[in-house]
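Replying to the earlier thread about multi-chain prediction with a worked example.

Input:
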Amino acid sequence: MPAMSTIIGYKLRRAQLHVFQDFIGTFSKLKLRPAEFSVLTIIANTPGLKQSEIAEMLGIKRANFVALMDGIEKRGLAERRKADTDRRSHSLHLTPEGEKFVRKMAAVWAEHETRLIERLGGARERDRLIELLDRLIEPAGQ
Amino acid sequence: MPAMSTIIGYKLRRAQLHVFQDFIGTFSKLKLRPAEFSVLTIIANTPGLKQSEIAEMLGIKRANFVALMDGIEKRGLAERRKADTDRRSHSLHLTPEGEKFVRKMAAVWAEHETRLIERLGGARERDRLIELLDRLIEPAGQ
DNA sequence: CGAAAAATGTTTTATATCATAACATTATAG
DNA sequence: CTATAATGTTATGATATAAAACATTTTTCG
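Result:
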């Protein structure tokens, strides 16, 4: 049998758990979990998307997205707006408070990401890692 | 805000989920989950280790390891033996049937891993990926 | 030696994550 | 206009993970 240390899936899982632990620790001051971070990031970058669209982008079942978005909305960071073109759907937008929060979030994220890049040995290695991971995800590299 | 596609932790998570989906699909014929695969691999490579030692290697809480090992033992693939040097602990060993199973497992795993290596672009890229992931896990690169 | 502390495996419990089914409302197709 | 599909939601079950408490056994050390 191959050694565990050479198995791609195993190494990926361990690295992902380790990085998420760093993330969770770094973001404990903002009480923000990775899923919430990713939702806020997408809303900040592309406001107005439908709930289902964001859920699908992130690989989250729309049923499970509801509670996630409830929490974000209850904290006053983002809001659902009824789209008048399609009154079934909710388009998602940051609140003014959410805009402020996202700026803080970006600073905390930079702290976290910089630490990871240092571990990797530089931005060049980061780019190489992203490229290799994209090849694994392929073909839908979003 | 940075695009999600450039965020290390996010890309890592997506790649890991994708690879695990491939793993689960490939191993459905053996009805084997990733955690069971890793336990059997370690027992095959280093028989006689204590339950706690294997659990810790894999980052599994020893409380959660119990049910995992129960399942493996009930399938007749491995067994707990009371160590006479320390009668608290159980040392883990494959059964003869487990030895046969592990050989089948290795063949199925090669099929899965080969597909991943092709996606990456070759063994060289695989090695590079493992190296980068190790840097993230650091310093305990097991 | 003998008592306190630690290690090992186990059970129980709580929490978080993820998938599935069913439903009401609204939009679209034919 | 009716049948079908899409959207958000609720409810439920399965799985993964973490923590606490316990019995048994070993180790520590006064």
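Residues 50-52, 62-63, 65-66, 80, 86, 88-90 of chain A lie near DNA strand D (CB under 10 Å from a C1').

Feel free to reuse this layout for your own posts.
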